[in-house]
Amino acid sequence: MRMVFKNSLLFQPVNIWKGRRKFISKSFSQPILNSFVQYFNENSNVLVKVLRNFNHDLYSVFGRYTFDTFTEAIVGRNYHLQTDLNNKLLEEMDVIQHFLGCEYFVRGCCFGVLMRIKDFLCHGWHALWVILKFRRFLADKVRCRMAEFDKCPVVDSQLSFVDAMLNRKDIFPRKIIETEFILFASAATDTTGNSLVFIFTLLGMYPEIQEKVFEEIVTNIGRDEPIEVDHLTKLKYTERVIFECMRLLPSVTEVSRYISKDIKIGDKTFPKGTNISIYILGVHRNSKYWPNPDKFDPDRFLPEEIAKRPPYAYILFSAGPRNCIGKMFATMSIKVVVANVIRNFRVSSKYRSIDEMEMRCYMTMRTKHDIDCHFTPRD
Ligand code: HEM
Predict the structure, then answer these.
(1) Number of separate domains in the chain
(2) How close is the Cα of 184 to the center of ligand 1, in Å?
(3) Tens digits of per-residue pLDDT, 82-122?
(4) What is the ipTM for the molecules in this complex?
């Protein structure tokens, strides 16, 4: 991780992180995010076509949608991974998840150094090769953008974070811009893609809820109209459904922190120098805050129900200053996809409960095997 993201936001000490996060946050303001909705809409139209012909390997299908949308919004380039099935870059990235994932470290710890060396020789080189390929692929796009900028500088207060950094090349060298772009693309793709897979699978498990979502979408947007910013705030029930899906199946299940001074919580003290993990999945299914926690109930996200809970009972995007910078980007993108897909397809799944979905968790959570979720055109 450190090797790939060394110069990025993720690994900066607080004093550098603070200034950079503030700078980048301006590019995630509401007016800028609103201007991205056209890309979410256009790419979700492609997704609808893809789903008509290609109904398997859903992690790849939704990951490709997310990657195309992200790169188009941020550097103005669509790589058409949704339709270019020969490009296997995202699937190859899964090797990295395997390599960095729990299994490697758990086994490495149990059987000692020899197992680590064996794992590295078996999987490490492959992971390294994929990382370099991904890096080169994305860095190349930043260079293209840079060349465009040099020819024709854009003077605008509403720039994507890459363009905003390119505008301040005096403080952001090219290498840093490239690394940030790679971090953001990685942080956006699997998280959002996997969430979409889970949302549709849960909608497939609860057809009555799916029909209510369909009704709301058709009433507020229509069957064929392009999806625009103003539509998104009208999808109140759909939004509750999305939040409930991501409560039960968060694509990021834990975050870690290094404790820099003693912290007392209740009668326990966590001493300075400790690494701790906050288990998001556990918090989201804690019966103290979520009665009958395994029940799928979108009304938990009615405003009056939210008001009854402490704000940290739902930490899908983490919380505090180091939370997810892309949370609104992800939420808006997911809403557009749900609206466009549900008005075009009836979704079904054989699972009767989330317990039947065997999960595996590396950096992000997925099912162990191909997921059972099917899309049947409504027309
Ligand atoms: C459903 C989708 C997403 C989920 C569940 C998610 C979750 C998270 C979580 C839990 C963190 C905090 C990590 C920590 O506290 O250590 C985080 C950080 C981050 N996320 Fe997301 N994320 C999502 C989508 C996105 C998107 C779309 C982007 C980019 C547009 C993004 C960019 C980032 C970045 C750059 C950080 C690090 C922020 C920092 O250290 O200041 N994420 N995300």
Answers:
(1) 1
(2) 8
(3) 999 898 888 887 777 777 664 444 444 555 666 667 666 67
(4) 0.99
